[in-house]
Design a protein that fits this description.
Layout: E1 2-3, E2 15-21, H1 27-40, E3 45-52, H2 59-75, H3 77-86, H4 99-115, E4 119-122, H5 125-137, E5 143-147, E6 161-162, E7 164-167, H6 170-178, E8 186-188, E9 210-214, H7 222-230, E10 238-242, H8 247-257, E11 264-267, H9 273-279, E12 282-285, H10 289-297, E13 302-305, H11 311-322, E14 325-328, H12 334-343, H13 347-358, H14 363-372, E15 379-381, H15 383-394, E16 408-413, E17 419-424, H16 428-435, E18 442-445, H17 455-465, E19 470-476
Parallel strand pairs: 2-3, 2-4, 4-5, 5-7, 7-8, 9-10, 9-12, 10-11, 12-13, 13-14, 15-17
Antiparallel strand pairs: 1-3, 6-15, 16-17, 16-19, 18-19
Helix pairs in contact: 1-14, 2-3, 7-8, 7-12
C-alpha cells in the first residue's frame, strides 16, 4: 500500500483517489502507477492511495490467484485459453461474491473505509467486482471506474454497478454499447501507461537498427531462443536484451553472445524500459497489454513471440490488424522473421508510423478526467437485464435489437441526462404503478411503503437514490 501526502491549499474539498489493483502479473500494477502519476499533476486531487488487493489477502488466496495463474501458463496453457473463453460472456458471473473472495475482501473494505475516498479506480476485475457489491449495498459513496488493461474487452470486467468503464479501443466500446450499456458510461481511452516527459521524442539517426528483446519482468527461457536465432541474421543490427529478475537466464545469454558481444547489451531487471523503448527500432517479446501499450506510445513496432493464450493472443491480433506488429509462431524462424522486417525497404518505417497512430500516451489522464468530471450517480444493471444480455450474447443477437418484455430500457436522471439504470422492460411495470407521473416519467422515492417492493427493486432504487429522498428519471429505449 502506498499513500501520497496531502497537497494543495484546499485539502478539505479536494479529491481523495484510491487505486485498487491486483498483482497477477505486473501490468495491472503498472496501470495503477500510471493513474497515480496522473493524479499528481491535478490540482483538485489532494490525496492518493494505491492498494494491491492481493497483498492484504491471505497467503493462500494470493498464491492460488497469482502463482497458480503463472503455473498454468507454463504447464497448461490450453487451460488458460479455455478459462478465458469460458469467462468471456458478459454477466456470466452474477450475484454476490463467493464466500472465499468475500472473506479475503474484508481487509480491502476496511482500507476503503479508513481512507474515505471520493473516487476509486480499479485496474483489475477482482476489486471492480467487489466495488459493485459495495455500491449496491450503499457501503461506499465514491465514484468508481473500471479500467481494462488489454486491447480486447473480456467479460469478467463487466460488473453490475459502476460510474465509468474505460476500455482500450473503440471496438470494445462498440461491443459494450451493443450489449445495451449507455454511451455516457463507456469510453475508449487506451491502456494507462506512465509518461516520461523528458525523454527525447525521436530516435537518433544513423547506425544499424536496434532490437529490444524482452524476457518480461520474471524472465523466461524463450528469450534465449530469440537471441540464439538473431545470431543467424544477415541484417546489420544491435540488440539490448532485458532478462528481468532471472539472473540464470542473464548469465546464459551473456555466454551465448560473448563471441559477438559488441552487438549485444545484456541487462537484468531495469527501470529504464521507457528510455530503451525510445531508443529501439523493433521490440521482440510478448504482447502483454501494458507492454504493447508502452510500445505503441513510443512508436515502437513489435515482433510478437510466445503470447499467453487468451488476452495476449487477442492483443497481438489487434496490433497485427493495425500494421504495428508481426507475429512469429515458431522459435526456429524468429531470426528470419526479424530479418524480413529489416531487409524490406520502407517496412520498418511503415510499422513505426502505425505504432505511433495506435499509441495512446494520455490514457491515464483521460481516465482520471473522465471519472472525476463524470456523473456522480452510478449506473446500475439489474439482474434481469444481465440475464438478457448474457442470453443475447449466447444467441449471437445484439441485445439492443430485442423487443417486447425482455427488451432493455434505460432510466436517465432528469436533471443531468446521465443514465442511472439499465433494466428489462417488464421490470418497469411495478415502477410505473408506484412512481409513474402523468407525463410518463418516473419519480423514484424513498418512501415508507417500499417494504412492499421486491428485494431487487429495493436494491436498485437504493443504489440510484444514493441517500436522497427522490429522483426524477425518464425512460429511454436503447
Amino acid at each position: 500500500m502506498r499513500k501520497t501526502s496531502e497537497r494543495g491549499p484546499h485539502k478539505a474539498v479536494g479529491e481523495r483517489v484510491m487505486i485498487l489493483s491486483a498483482g497477477v502479473g505486473s501490468g495491472h500494477n503498472s496501470a495503477a502507477a500510471a493513474v497515480e502519476q496522473a493524479c499528481s499533476v491535478r490540482t483538485d486531487v489532494n490525496e492518493v492511495q494505491v492498494l494491491d488487493v492481493l497483498q492484504v489477502s491471505s497467503a493462500l488466496y494470493r498464491d492460488v490467484l497469482a502463482k497458480g495463474y503463472f503455473a498454468l501458463v507454463e504447464d497448461l496453457p490450453w487451460l488458460i485459453e479455455w478459462g478465458y473463453d469460458a469467462s468471456d460472456p458478459p454477466f456470466r458471473r452474477r450475484g454476490p461474491l463467493d464466500p472465499w473472495t468475500g472473506i479475503n475482501a474484508l481487509p480491502v473494505i476496511r482500507a476503503i473505509k479508513r481512507f474515505r475516498p471520493t473516487a476509486i479506480v480499479c485496474t483489475h476485475f477482482l476489486p471492480a467486482q467487489l466495488l459493485a457489491t459495495l455500491l449496491l449495498r450503499g457501503v461506499i459513496d465514491a465514484k468508481t471506474a473500471v479500467v481494462t488493461t488489454d486491447y480486447d474487452f473480456q467479460g469478467l470486467w463487466l460488473t453490475s454497478a459502476f460510474h465509468q468503464l474505460f476500455v482500450a479501443r473503440e471496438e470494445g466500446r462498440i461491443e459494450l454499447t451493443a450489449f445495451g450499456l449507455p454511451t455516457d458510461r463507456i469510453t475508449a481511452t487506451g491502456i494507462p501507461i506512465a509518461t516520461e516527459p523528458n525523454l527525447p521524442a525521436t530516435r537518433e539517426g544513423g547506425g544499424p537498427p536496434m532490437l529490444l528483446i524482452s524476457a518480461g519482468a520474471k524472465g523466461g527461457d524463450y528469450a534465449e531462443a530469440v537471441v540464439r536465432q538473431t545470431l543467424h541474421m544477415r541484417s546489420a543490427f544491435t540488440a539490448t536484451i532485458v532478462c528481468g529478475h532471472d539472473e540464470e537466464l542473464r548469465r546464459r545469454i551473456e555466454a551465448l553472445v560473448a563471441p559477438v558481444a559488441d552487438r549485444y547489451q545484456v541487462l537484468g531487471f531495469t527501470t529504464q524500459m521507457p528510455q530503451l523503448m525510445r531508443s529501439a527500432d523493433l521490440f521482440v517479446g510478448k504482447p502483454g497489454g501494458l507492454t504493447a501499450s508502452e510500445c505503441m506510445a513510443a512508436g515502437l513496432p513489435m515482433v510478437l513471440v510466445n503470447p499467453i493464450p487468451g488476452q495476449e493472443i487477442r492483443n497481438g491480433d489487434y496490433l497485427l490488424e493495425q500494421g504495428a506488429a508481426v507475429r512469429c509462431n515458431s522459435a526456429a524462424t524468429i531470426g528470419w522473421k526479424i530479418d524480413s522486417v529489416l531487409r524490406e525497404p520502407g517496412r520498418l518505417e511503415r510499422m513505426k508510423a502505425a505504432a505511433h497512430k495506435t499509441g495512446r500516451p494520455e490514457a491515464a489522464a483521460d481516465v482520471l478526467s473522465g471519472l472525476l468530471d463524470g456523473p456522480s450517480r452510478p449506473l446500475v444493471v439489474s439482474r434481469a437485464a444481465q440475464k438478457t444480455i448474457l442470453a443475447a450474447s449466447g444467441d449471437r443477437v445484439v441485445a439492443t435489437d430485442l423487443r417486447g418484455p425482455s427488451s432493455l430500457v434505460r432510466l436517465n436522471e432528469e436533471a443531468t441526462g446521465s443514465t442511472v439504470a439499465l433494466l428489462r422492460a417488464d421490470e418497469l411495470v411495478v415502477l410505473r404503478k408506484r412512481y409513474g407521473t402523468e407525463t410518463g416519467e418516473l419519480v423514484l422515492r424513498r418512501d415508507q411503503a417500499s417494504i412492499t417492493l421486491k428485494w431487487e427493486e429495493r436494491r436498485l432504487i437504493r443504489a440510484m437514490l444514493r441517500g436522497e429522498d427522490e429522483l426524477p428519471v425518464r425512460i429511454e429505449v436503447p
